[in-house]
Specification:
heterodimer, A: 320 residues, eight-stranded mixed sheet, B: 127 residues, mainly alpha
């Protein structure tokens, strides 16, 4: 057995704090519509009288302010990192929407795109301090440690993908990276590196799955196997298919959930598909949130349905 | 009583339906599963190789053949409740190992169950 907990890992402690509603919106690939979904969910919820904080953690590609029709503001997340302000709350700015505040991303690309470990931890801790009803974090693209850790800290993480091979491939890569990162965090936290080394030596099959890994752990130590299994089962990301055009695109989400559960062990909740609609492009060009003007459209209804499912899922998670 | 193959322990889990699933639920689940694992489906793109895909599809087909036939389904349910004590030692392992391995289908299940029996027979329990 490992020697037990020594350090308090912030990602694990945040995941154990079930009272915060933090939705991290990610997806691996760029251009899938993460910022569109983040901004419109935030606007919709604020119109439903929820206090919402929208955080642009797309470090190196900040544009949430554009979706809300805001120009560059005096303060952004970079000012928090450079200690111009003491807390992240100090850079939250009001928006044209009542009850919605925005932490704008930085345009200092070189600095914020390459956040070091301690700054990332500081950001995660400060995100947790907002006492809004809902905190939505747009984590941007890629499967780097920053994006993965922001995704893991939320409950649930929301994956936005398009019904295309490249987007799906990147999404799976992102999920696998999250799983590896989550397992590693727990392995380091409980100091069971020796156990895992023994396990990986036992696994000879090159196409080892998450199941194969866990089965070897259980053969060595059922206590930690159960712990790792439960950690994986607590990781319950959600899935949105954006820009769906054909009937099979709308059905793809359930298929992906099915496959992910069998191969990656985790439960991926399919929230729904957002239809492709040219008006989305127009609303972005006009710097207005789509849902503000077109809530009754097919895209608007899909967003409303997704928001309701996310709130319901959050309520269920808190009851556990 | 037929000895169950470890790969076929829970057909409901393979089909991703509950034990109380109606015929309609099973048909729907079968449709989704076929769509998920058919050759050119995007759902499994890069996540598994061709052999794994075929294996999963075979098991789904087998599960569907049984569950879609009311007589065979009834027989399977009866066999499963009789076999419970044979396959599992206690509820803890049923909840953990069943969920871990029920759809894995590879030979490690046999090895793991041997190890679990060893733990019980030696009387040692870790905290």
């Amino acid at each position: 057995m490992g020697s037990g907990k020594i350090n308090t890992n912030p990602v694990i402690s945040i995941r154990q704090d079930s009272q915060r509603t933090i939705w991290a919106v990610g997806g691996g690939k760029g251009g899938t519509g993460k910022s569109f979904v983040s901004a419109n969910l935030a606007v919709y919820l604020s119109k439903r009288n929820k206090e919402v904080t929208l955080i642009d953690a797309d470090l190196g590609g900040a544009n949430l302010h554009t979706f809300l029709g805001l120009k560059k503001s005096d303060l952004d997340i970079g000012d928090f990192f450079t200690k111009k302000v003491p807390t992240l709350k100090d850079v939250a700015v009001p928006t044209p929407f009542n009850k919605l505040s925005l932490v704008k991303g930085s345009d200092n690309l070189l600095f914020t795109a390459n956040l070091n470990y301690f700054k990332k931890l500081k950001l995660i801790r400060h995100i947790k301090t907002f006492d809004s009803d809902v905190i939505i974090v747009d984590i941007g693209t890629g499967s780097n440690y920053n994006s993965i850790d922001f995704f893991l800290l939320s409950s649930p993480g929301v994956l936005v993908i398009n019904p295309e091979p490249t987007s799906i491939e990147n999404a799976y890569y992102f999920l696998k990276s999250c799983i590896i990162r989550l397992l590693k965090l727990y392995i380091d936290h409980y100091q069971i590196q020796d156990l895992i080394k023994k396990v990986t030596e036992q696994i000879k099959d090159n196409s080892r799955s998450v199941y194969s890994f866990l089965s070897e752990v259980i053969s060595q130590d059922k206590y930690y196997a159960d712990l790792l299994y439960r950690a994986l089962k607590k990781f319950k990301p959600s899935l949105i298919i954006n820009k769906a055009r054909h009937e099979k695109d709308f059905m793809l989400g359930e298929s992906i959930s099915n496959v992910v559960q069998k191969i990656l062990v985790i439960d991926l909740d399919y929230l729904g598909a957002i239809p492709f609609n040219e008006m989305v492009h127009e609303s972005v060009k006009n710097l207005t949130p789509f849902i503000n003007e077109y809530q009754d459209s097919d895209v608007g209804k899909a967003l409303v349905s997704i928001a309701s499912k996310l709130l319901e899922k959050d309520k269920d998670e808190k009851k556990r | 009583m037929k000895k169950r193959d470890s790969e076929d322990i829970d057909l409901y889990k393979i089909m991703n339906v509950s034990q109380s699933a109606s015929q309609q639920d099973i048909e729907r689940a079968y449709k989704i599963a076929q769509s998920s694992y058919k050759k050119n489906s995007l759902a499994h793109y890069t996540l598994m190789d061709e052999d794994q895909r075929k294996k999963i599809l075979e098991r789904i087909e087998k599960a569907y053949r049984i569950l879609s036939d009311p007589g065979k389904r009834r027989e399977d349910d009866q066999n499963k409740s009789k076999n419970k004590s044979e396959v599992y030692h206690n509820a803890y392992f049923r909840s953990t190992t069943e969920k871990l391995f029920i759809e894995d289908g590879d030979r490690t299940l046999v090895k793991v169950m041997k190890n679990i029996r060893k733990i019980f027979s030696s009387g040692s329990q870790k905290k």
